[in-house]
Specification:
Elements: H1 12-30, H2 34-46, H3 49-69, H4 76-139, H5 149-154, H6 160-171
Amino acid sequence: MASSAATADLSEHVAQSVDELAEFHLTHYRTASWLQRSIDRLTALVATPAALVTLTIGVALWISVTVLVSRRGIDQPSFGWLELFASCAALLVAGVILVTQRREDQLAERRGQLTLELAILADKKSAKIIALLEELRRDHPQVSDRLDPVSAEMATPTDVPTVLAAIDERSGITTPAEQPDSG
């Protein structure tokens, strides 16, 4: 069980779930390479209000110094260097953001797969519970035995491929096997 103050008031099974979820996320971050962790730190640094303010002040200072130092009014080469610097910085920031986003997408994908797996497992468990309750109702002498078609239907776990096919059919999605041959 977790020992932090935040989880001290939680029941054992909830605290265990919190610990398992935390371990899930820690495993994701532990498996990152040193380069990925460095890029994540750089992204965290760039994605702060202080970085935006620093960048704005830096550009304003560059422009101010260029205008004040220039005897002809505006020194074109200095602004060309500013433009080159800004373009390179934008390219690097875009790359850093894309690398970080890709890593976060991997975590989101794993989380989605886990959620789906748990939903399927919960469906199977619910079906088993309903089946056991129906069996108990049939076997218990003090409970009247009656046919309940809804309970009988709910006692069967969902057939995931059939549900996916129905969703695809209703939404107009065709699977590769159903697509007409283009050759």
